[in-house]
Design a protein that fits this description.
The chain contains 19 helices and eleven strands. By secondary structure, the protein is an alpha+beta fold. Strands 1, 2, 3, 4 and 6 form a five-stranded antiparallel sheet that branches. α2 packs antiparallel against α3. The radius of gyration is 27 Å and the shape is globular. The two termini are 41 Å apart. InterPro entries: ABC1_dom, Kinase-like_dom_sf, Prot_kinase_dom, UbiB_kinase. Keywords: Kinase, Membrane, Transferase, Transmembrane, Transmembrane helix. Pfam families: ABC1. Belongs to the protein kinase superfamily. ADCK protein kinase family.
Length: 538
């Protein structure tokens, strides 16, 4: 039943409608009365919604799982309890019968699969919502991995994208999320990034591009791909014996150095950012293998994102600002990357970044039972949600990839110091940029001098800011709460007017069908009135 297009669309849209209505009614009912008890009820409701989404995603598969994985990284728009519930959502689904996979193979190859393969495993070694992987042996005796698209995947994802378009329209009209994210650009990014997974020829091209790009990097390799056996729905690549990079038992058994592996892995990811171009958009533990000798193997290039050279340099300037504690440069870079809207309070954001970096460098963040750290992280999430901070659509999958990757690093080495690892690499990158230009430019010299002397220059101002912070925060909170209340009232009024418009229009249609004139007049008046109210509320 879940494979039927209409049913999939209905279940996805209905869940979204339920969530939107529950949030609206809860906020309306508790307006001006936000106590600890109300906060607990709110968290319970959000957790229940997240569980309902997770259960539906696991039943439907397809785009719902990937969308849930994406949402689990969006602390800027999703409540913490929702994020926590979706954090473990993985794209693992039961495999389809082997004969269905063989049927796809033979359709794509237009010949019996035994003409190409000596052996094909009895069951899938990996199964996800789009493809399944089987171990096989070619006629020349070489072991290969054969990735085959699940039957009906095209149709399922088309239905899911239709449902998401409807949900996005509703979110734009009836929720405050449109203030923080451009849904239209996000949808384009989703279709380009996730839609590319449907074409295995594209994955082969991506894999080849990564192999050429990192060919000289020691201890890192990409599988060989076979053009002659690869089609839009079948991908054949070299079989590599290895374990998930997060398999700590495998690391211990082979006496590998976890810290050295995490350093090498971090450099691999950083290289993708430093010099622009493509980056792996789904770097979870199952897509990064570890060989017995410690070699890192990157696989599955279906989800690939792109970061331009210009954006790459802005990211590095932001990192440079963090290293030298020049937070104005960090904010300038975030504005250049389109993360900050013009009305953002730079002072509050700069102070927030400063506190976070200080806490990280002093190892406070490793003491998860610390009250100070808990307050700090809560403050960060609150500022991200209340300030006009947005995640540009083209960075949606970059943010998700970075979040997943950092999680993998912390499994490998819980004490990994990302700033310490990044600092020499970023300085090396900056030096190479200067050498590429020839001599240091005046602007570069000035920026580096200002960065290097930054801590001394800003010390007096930091003392003043510290003394003024309580008053500044009070004014900010008062203004923010006033804007939020006004926006919430308008949003709720618009939503109720929209609901009455739909109901009254339905009443008009029924009265015309049965020609009930009194009912027609009443429903017409309600329709015109609610439509006028809906259009007049901004």
């Amino acid at each position: 039943m879940n494979q039927i297009t209409f049913i999939r669309i209905f279940r996805i849209v209905w869940l979204a409608v339920k969530i939107f209505l529950q949030v609206t009614f809860f906020q309306r009912r508790n307006r001006g009365n936000w106590s600890p008890l109300v906060e607990k009820r709110w968290n319970d409701m959000i957790t229940k919604q997240a569980k309902e989404y997770k259960n539906l995603a696991l039943k439907l598969g397809g785009l719902m799982i990937k969308l849930g994985q994406f949402l689990s990284t969006r602390a800027d728009i999703m409540p913490p309890t929702f994020l926590a519930e979706l954090e473990g959502l993985t794209d693992r689904v039961p495999s389809v019968p082997r004969k269905s996979i063989v049927s796809v193979l033979e359709q794509e190859w237009n010949t019996p699969h035994t003409n190409y393969l000596d052996q094909l495993s009895d069951s899938a070694v990996a199964s996800a919502s789009i493809g399944e992987v089987y171990k096989a042996v070619l006629k020349n005796g070489m072991e290969v991995a054969v990735k085959v698209q699940r039957p009906g995947t095209d149709r399922i994802l088309r239905a899911d994208f239709k449902a998401i378009r409807i949900v996005i329209w509703m979110a734009e009209k009836f929720t405050p999320f449109a203030k923080q994210i451009d849904f239209k650009l996000l949808y384009v990014e989703m279709t380009e990034t996730i839609g590319a997974e449907l074409n295995f020829l594209k994955e082969l091209q991506n894999g080849r591009a990564f192999a050429d790009r990192f060919d000289s990097m020691e201890g890192v390799r990409i599988p060989l791909y076979f053009d002659e056996f690869t089609t839009r729905r079948v991908l054949v690549m070299e079989w590599i014996e290895g374990a998930r990079i997060t398999d700590l038992a495998f690391i211990e058994k082979n006496e590998l150095d976890r810290h050295e592996i995490s350093e090498r892995l971090f450099i691999l990811f950083l290289e993708q950012v430093l010099y622009g171009g493509q980056f792996h958009a789904d770097p979870h533990g199952g897509n990064i293998l570890l060989e017995p000798d410690g070699g890192i193997v990157l696989i599955d290039f279906g989800m690939i994102g792109t970061i331009t050279q210009k954006d790459s340099q802005a990211v590095l300037r932001a990192a440079e600002g963090v290293i030298f504690k020049n937070y104005d440069q960090v904010l300038d870079s975030l504005e250049e990357l389109r993360f900050l809207l013009p009305q953002a309070d730079r002072k509050i954001l700069g102070d927030a970044i400063s506190r976070l970096v200080t806490a990280y460098e002093s190892n406070e963040l490793s003491q998860m039972d610390s009250f100070v750290v808990e307050r700090l992280l809560n403050d960060m999430q609150e500022i991200v949600r209340t300030q006009p901070v947005q995640l540009p659509a083209e960075f949606a999958f970059f943010g998700r990839a970075a979040s997943i990757f950092v999680g993998v690093l912390h499994v490998l080495d819980p004490n990994v110091d990302l700033l310490a690892l990044a600092r020499p690499r970023i300085l090396e990158w900056a030096s190479s940029q200067k050498e590429g230009k020839g001599l240091f430019g005046k602007e570069d010299v000035l920026r580096w001098v200002l960065n290097a002397t930054g801590p001394l220059r800003v010390l007096p101002q930091k003392v003043i800011n510290y003394l003024e912070e309580p008053e500044r925060m009070r004014h900010y909170l008062e203004n923010r709460d006033g804007r939020e209340r006004e926006h919430r009232r308008n949003l709720q009024s618009r939503m109720f007017a929209g609901i009455f418009t739909i109901l009254s229009f339905s009443g008009m249609s029924i009265s015309i069908w049965f020609w009930n004139e009194p009912y027609l007049w009443v429903s017409s008046v309600f329709f015109v009135g609610s439509l006028w109210v809906y259009r007049s509320i901004k």
